[in-house]
Every structure is written in structure tokens, then in C-alpha cells.
Amino acid sequence: xxxxxTSPYTPDLEELRSWLxxxxxxxxxxxxxxxxxxxxxxxxxxxxxxxxxVAHLTRxxxxxxxxxxxxxxxxxxxxxxxxxxxAKKNTGSDSLxxxxxxKRSRGGGRGAFPAxxxxxxxxxxxxxxxxxxxxxGAQMKTVAHSVCETINIVPARFFIERRLDExxxxxxxxxxxxxxxxxxxxxxxxxxxxxxxxxTADKFLEHQxxxxxxxxxxxxxxxxxxxxxxxxxxxHIDLLIPVADAIAAMTRAPGYLGxxxxxxxxxxxxxxxxxxxxxxxxxxxxxWVSFFFSAHGDSxxxxxxxxxxxARTVQCDGTSVTNCIERAGGKRPxxxxxxxxxxxxxxxxxxxxxxxxxxxxxxxxxxxxxxSLAGDSAEMRRARRQELSKPIVDKLRAWxxxxxGLVPPKTPLGRALGYLHRxxxxxxxxxxxxxxxxxxxxxxxxxxxxxxxxxxxxxTWRDVGGKRTAAILSIIATCIAHDVNPRAYLHLVTKLIVxxxxxxxxxxxxxxxxxxxxxxxFVGESFALLGPASPALAx
Length: 539
Description:
Layout: H1 13-25, H2 29-57, H3 67-73, H4 98-101, E1 167-169, E2 176-178, H5 193-205, H6 210-219, H7 226-251, E3 257-267, E4 275-285, E5 288-294, H8 299-306, E6 314-315, H9 323-327, H10 336-348, H11 352-374, H12 378-404, H13 412-422, H14 424-427, H15 441-457, E7 460-461, H16 462-481, H17 486-498, H18 511-517, H19 525-530
Parallel strand pairs: 3-6, 3-7
Antiparallel strand pairs: 1-2, 3-4, 4-5
Helix pairs in contact: 5-7, 5-17, 7-16, 10-11, 10-13, 11-12
């Protein structure tokens, strides 16, 4: 292919003029036309890419990837420029289960309130002037009460805890003994343990920075410096790090692993601009979730977490950082959602071929949805995939081979086809093993706990702050995965550790065993409906 006569990013007009004059003088008109066309084509491709990025950043509508919504988002679908819209089928990837399509009953209804929440009876007597019978003037008597239940709350009440340390003295000599102070998160500190645990939970569950919590305290008349509260939260997390390490050990145990990573700004005075970017990895193994901080998001951070046991099945996206797993003999199942997302980007630009690809992928996700609703085991899921998903995959492969050689590789559709081709073996591993998920979306949802909080507290302090953040997020995410109330768990486990829980029995403090011995930590269906990515629950 003819190379452009000058850089399409920063074209040098003098260089271009000199090049044109030489070609005209030498009567090389064919080479001249080819060079100019190559320059125009390259500048056009760059302009399209920049236009796409600007349009993506300035979108006012939600960036939904749902196929039905995506088709509605296309601007001015003119006849002949867009593919005809197919009739909606129940097997489409975005069709909802039948239970979600039921019409809502009129009036809605309150539903049953949880039985474990305490009830407080508030009498509502009939006023005295209405207790007189309007017909005979007799005093009416109570015959029944109708009950109307509403959910309410008692606002938090701050108080100063005064500990009266007793001192005893011997009446026969000068011996004096004082009561030893009870153990606390911060010895001889001004903040109580309950307040410190609540501050930790508010920061990493409700995404409230320490400074914002101190402003709330100030409105209640308590002046607490952010530095004081921040150091107390730090001491609390340091106390819980052995629990996070035990969760990491359970996550590294044999089983099907998944991982994904995101960046985190790190305040570091030694950095050139005072800020550098670290990486936090989210690792999952069944109901165990472990966050791992690394100063650099390279392959060494993968080795640091997994150790020498790299020959594992680890689901992740298409990054080359995790290639060390395959080199060690492991498997790296891919993420079909990542492959689909590239076709979504091309379809948003009006590419009808990309929309054809999305329609081909749609039944794959419906098969997974049906399997989940049916409660399939791993072997049942594999059999379902072999019967239903494999023919869809074969059709998708044939479509890919048909279009890959016809579409320029630098276009949005070309990049989508290239990614699907390069990652094909990884993307289709889910057909061989029922334990492998079709997407890596669970790890992305786990990382939202960090991303939502990162928008509020912005930075972490050096690498030690990143490790503390990873530790507390590991505990919270694993609690939620085990249907354990993370706030109540933090209160209970902190109390046990502060009062000298033996380190040799640390395994008994993990959420699964704590739930067995303390069933009151269980959270019911209302908590599960919020999901792991709910802003009310995710850090």
C-alpha cells in the first residue's frame, strides 16, 4: 500500500509541496495520485476515530449496550442505510424472563416486612370527642385495633462514654491497684471502637470520605479532625489484615479463578508530579473475593498473587499481562462481553454488519440466562452449551471468516472482527467446561466497589494505603458474596480480635464460618436484590 507523503497527524506543508513538485517534474502521475489518496484516506480514518471519541464522550443518553436500546439509539435510520429490524423473539439475548414481563398488579401493594426487624407499637387512640356515640350519647368501648406497619429509623445519637476505672487500696499497707484499661483499636485514643468501625464501613461501603464524615460530626457538635479519624480507620484496617490474608489464601485455593484490574491514583511525594498510578486486581474463586494491590499492573503482579502455581484456569479479558498463565500451562478463558462491546461501538456508528454480528451473538447470552434460571450444575450447563451454544458459535465463526478479509482492519468493525479472531480459542473455552462463565462481568462488578469509592476519596497514600484499601475491600466483597451483612460482620470480628481472639483459629473468623456460628449476620432476599454493584452496598 502506498505510504502517505507526510504525516497525517501533523502534515508538513513544505514537505508535501516538495514531494508534489518532484513527482510532477518526473511525470510520475500515478505515484502522485496514489500518494495523495493514501494521505486523504489516512486523514479520513483519523478524523472518523476522533469524531467517534468525541461523540462517545459527549453522549447525553445512557451508554447502554442492550441490543434493543442500541437499535433505538441509532440516529436517523434511513431506508436502505440500516438493516431491517427483526421481529422480537423470546430467545433474543435481551429478552427478559417471563417472570419479569408479568404485568404489575394495580395498586402495587407493600409486601411483607422482614420478620427479624423489631416492632415498636405506637398507640393511636380515638380522640375523646369522638368516643361519644352520636346516637345515644353513651361512652364507646374499644373492640379492636387495626395494624398499619411502616418502616422508620432512629437517627444516630452521639454520646461521650465515661469509663470509671476503679482503684483499690489495701487498708493495712500502701498497696494500690487500678483496673487495667480494656483493649481498644486505638489505645488511649479519643474515639471509641464502635465509631471507628462505623467510619470504616461508611468510607468503604457508602463511599463517604473521612473529611465528609467529619463535617457530619461537626453538624452534630463534635469537632473531630480528619487526621484523627483517618489514623483510627487505618489502625482498624491494620487490625483486620490477617483476615484479608486468610481470604486471599482461600481465593488462591484450587478452583476456577477469574480476575480483572483497574488503576488507582497513589499520592507519593517521591513521584515527579506527586501522584502515580497503581493497580488493584480483583480475584474471585467461587464465593471468595480478594483484592490485590500492586505498584505496577504488569505480569509480575499476577505472579505475586498466584505464586508458583500459574498453571490454573483463570478467566480474564484479552490483555497480554496474563499471558504468563498460558505459558505456564494454564488456560485463559476470554470474555464474550468484551468481544461484543467492540461490535456495539461499531453499530453505534451505523454499521449494519456490526449489528448482524450482535444478532448472531445474542442467543449465546440467552442460553446462559436460561441455564442460570434453571439452576444447572456444571455438567448440565456443559451439555446445554454443546446442544444449543455450539451451533451458534459455528455460525458466528463462519460469519467472521466471511467478513474479516473484506473489512479494513483499522475501522471500528475491523478492530471488532480482529479481536474476535485473535481471541477465538479463549472465547470458546466455555463450551468445554461448565464451570467457565461466558463473560468476565463478575470481576468487573466487583471492581465497581473500588471505582465508586475512588470517585469520592480520590487517592490512596503510597503503596501501604493501596494494600489497606485492597484488604478492607476483600473482606467486604467476600461478606457480600456469602450473604453476610458486612457492617455487622466488621463490628463483630473487630470486637473478637481486639479482645484477643487466638490467631491459630483465624479461619473461624472468615465469613462462611461466622455465618454458621452467628446466623443473625445473614441478610435476606432484599439484600441480594440490590446486587454486588449496588451503590448502597458496594465500596
